[in-house]
């Protein structure tokens, strides 16, 4: 038995002990066999929607325990069972196409992926998630000393993969790994970025490619905020955070957070501190009451990363 197989078995076992018998799906590079040293274990647990609120606090603790056991980052996220077959969800489509079943009750199987649903809504979801991937390991001073941690390099790789895959999908094509996707696009700039994640300039090039696709989507205001913001308030309450004031905003909270994330990424530069103007734009983008205007770049980043899972849970689109 390989070490990877042993780790996967342990992940499935501990999830079953914690939440009971549910389909456990491995996605991302670990599922595809394209992982590198230190790659994340991205795990999705398919559950009835009514059971998720009772378990929502258990998943971060479960992920930390698994990280200690397998020696690599682990994310464990619940997905309502009725979302897995949703034809309008790009995330669900990728699961059906690429995920590997680590454990499941008898009779469970992944359905055929079918056509990829590429709309402005699914593109926003995909690209905003990529922005959060890039932002999560980034610190305000990370590029001042020209450092690029392995975690930041992996996140940049994942971010660029999302950008390239979405561009391919808009052409009616698809490739699961970055090398094949970049080759299919035949874009010399993206080829350079794919091998430049260790350099600050490469990271900023990936940022520019991402935001060049995401910012036009953010420019279009979405007024239908009632359902997503009610869900945000409910999920936040389950984690002990009262967000009624923020949920009353006219704009969906996830779009406000994505706009703040984009401004934070724009603020980052090589060999200098984050730009103050872009940092203040990030504060202004946040829902009212989450931070004061004197907050630092790192403070804003922490708020965005904390609020995002409740504002835009897996399978939201």
Would you write up a description of this structure?
The chain is of the alpha+beta class. It folds into two domains: 3-103, Beta Polymerase, domain 2 (2-Layer Sandwich), CATH 3.30.460; 120-311, no CATH class. It has helices spanning 3-19, 29-32, 52-55, 58-70, 90-98, 120-135, 150-170, 178-185, 188-194, 200-218, 226-238, 244-247, 253-267, 276-285, 297-311; strands at 24-27, 41-47, 74-80, 100-103. A four-stranded mixed beta sheet has the order 3-2-1-4. Helix 13 packs antiparallel against helix 15 (297-311). The mean pLDDT is 90.
How many helical stretches?
A: 15
Main β sheet profile: 4 strands, mixed
Q: List the secondary-structure elements in sequence, H or E.
A: HEHEHHEHEHHHHHHHHHH
- The best one-word shape is globular
Strand order of the largest sheet: 3-2-1-4
Report the sheet-strand fraction. Answer: 5-15%
The computed structural class is alpha+beta
Helical amount among residues, as a percent range?
Answer: 55-70%
Radius of gyration: 19 Å
Tally of individual domains = 2
Which blocks of ≥5 consecutive residues have pLDDT under 50? none
Question: How many beta-strand runs?
Answer: 4
Span between N and C termini? Answer: 38 Å
In round numbers, the mean pLDDT is 90
Give a nutshell description of this structure.
The chain is α+β, with helices and mostly antiparallel strands and 317 residues long.
């Amino acid at each position: 038995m390989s070490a990877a197989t042993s780790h996967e078995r342990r992940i499935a076992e501990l999830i079953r002990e914690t939440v009971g018998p549910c389909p456990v799906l491995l996605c991302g590079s670990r599922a595809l066999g394209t992982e590198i040293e230190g790659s994340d274990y991205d795990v999705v647990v398919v559950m009835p929607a009514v059971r998720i609120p009772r378990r929502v606090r258990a998943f971060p603790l479960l992920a930390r325990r698994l990280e200690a056991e397998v020696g690599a980052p682990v994310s464990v996220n619940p997905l309502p069972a009725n979302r897995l077959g949703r034809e309008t969800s790009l995330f669900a489509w990728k699961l059906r196409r690429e995920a590997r079943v680590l454990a499941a009750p008898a009779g469970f199987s992944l359905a055929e992926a079918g056509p990829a649903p590429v709309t402005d809504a699914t593109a926003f979801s995909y690209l905003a998630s990529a922005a959060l991937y890039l932002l999560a390991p980034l610190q305000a001073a990370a590029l001042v000393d020209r450092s690029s941690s392995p975690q930041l390099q992996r996140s940049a790789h994942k971010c660029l993969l999302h950008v390239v895959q979405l561009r391919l999908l808009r052409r009616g094509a698809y490739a699961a790994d970055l090398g094949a996707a970049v080759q299919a696009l035949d874009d010399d700039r993206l080829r350079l970025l794919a091998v430049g994640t260790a350099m600050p300039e490469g990271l900023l090039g990936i940022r520019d490619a991402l935001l060049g696709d995401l910012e036009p989507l953010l420019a279009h205001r979405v007024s239908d905020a009632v359902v997503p913001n009610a869900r945000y308030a409910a999920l936040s309450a389950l984690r002990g955070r009262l967000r009624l004031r923020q949920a009353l905003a006219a704009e969906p909270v996830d779009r406000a957070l994505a706009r703040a994330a984009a401004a934070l990424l724009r603020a980052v530069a090589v060999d200098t501190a984050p730009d103050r103007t872009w940092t203040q734009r990030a504060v202004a983008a946040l829902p009212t009451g989450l931070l004061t205007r004197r907050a630092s770049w790192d403070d804003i980043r922490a708020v965005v990363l904390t609020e995002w899972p409740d504002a835009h849970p897996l399978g939201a689109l």
